[in-house]
Amino acid sequence: MSTSMRRRNQYRDRVELLQGTLDMLILQTLQWGPQHGYGIMQALRVNSGDVLQVETGSLYPALHRLERQRWVRSEWKHTQSKQRAKYYQITAVGKKQLASDLSRWQRIVEAIGAVIGRDPREGEA
Hints:
Layout: H1 3-31, E1 35-36, H2 37-47, H3 56-68, E2 72-78, E3 84-90, H4 92-116
Antiparallel strand pairs: 1-3, 2-3
């Protein structure tokens, strides 16, 4: 495999990991109840202690992707301030996907923790 092809595959894998993580976070947020886009951004920001700040340029393409995959559905409603907004809700298929994503995420966290917490002298003869 050429160097440029390896770089493209690494980039694609990185983008898929980032998209997958954002998708999982959105689905988790929608587990708490239907929400409009701004509400999802606020929930992610607040529940992460202001660490995760998702921009609209990332959020809305992710929501559209989740709708295409039928993991979420949407409908137009009025907010408390009487503004029209699209509300998103997780579907049964989305809940199954979230369970799978959370399981995979837990394995990744444990694997990274094992590497980070490993004493470099372990395994030396």
